[in-house]
Amino acid sequence: MKGNDLISTLYEHGTLASLMAGNMDGTITVADLLKHGSTGIGTFNGLDGEVIILDGEVYQAVSDGHVNHMTDRQAKMPFASVHTPEDLEKIELSNVDFTALNGDFAEKHALKNIFAALRLKGNFNHVKVRIAPKQEKPYPSLLEVAKGQPTFTNDNVTGTIIGYYAPEIFGSVTAAGWHLHFISDDRQFAGHLLEFNADQLTGDLQIFDNLQQHMPINDQAFRQGEVDMGILRDSIAQSEGNND
Ligand SMILES: [Zn+2]
């Protein structure tokens, strides 16, 4: 369990609300993001793909299904979350899927009102991901993009799930509930996780007592953008929801 004196921080750059409103220009470099953690998820400039960051290595799944190992530290991201794995609670799960994560698992670990990172490894019977296609200006809303995102499936694949749990009350700052990405061990298959099931997975859970929300204050679209809260709530539910 956590020591009382240890602060465990989830660092987030940009907000889901701003991304939903179509502010998709990259506003933090990979180099700057990695100063705040070695592990995480995000997307690139123009909503170009799904990003998985493991041990400081950055992978980008692009919408034709390929996975790039990104070594350009000056590439920019509009929305990303990272943390430094520490103070981990080891976990072993049998017969695991989103229903289990949303149900027994979330309840057992009392996740409802906290931020947490989840990393799970093993052999997956089935994985379904989606990959955001790169957008051109003028950027559409994320809801428009969500209607046309390609999905990919893979069966009997070994890999890693990495991502976060966020409380519903922060649901316009970041995706409420689970926001998980997947990458295969051979680094050939990756994306934003929509469905999965596995007989046996091992990994770790990290509970954060601190959220560091970083704002792209030099981005005028972020500074001056209008957010319609009603549309925003519906959009988030439709494009980011995976609470089945
Ligand atoms: Zn995602």
TrEMBL record:
The lineage of its organism: Bacteria, Bacillati, Bacillota, Bacilli, Lactobacillales. It catalyses: (2S)-2-acetolactate + H(+) = (R)-acetoin + CO2. Pathway: Polyol metabolism; (R,R)-butane-2,3-diol biosynthesis; (R,R)-butane-2,3-diol from pyruvate: step 2/3. It comes from the Bacteria. Belongs to the alpha-acetolactate decarboxylase family. It comes from Limosilactobacillus panis DSM 6035. Signal peptide: none annotated. The keyword Lyase applies. Transmembrane segments: none annotated. Pfam families: AAL_decarboxy. One of its GO terms (biological process) is acetoin biosynthetic process. Its EC number is 4.1.1.5. This is Alpha-acetolactate decarboxylase.
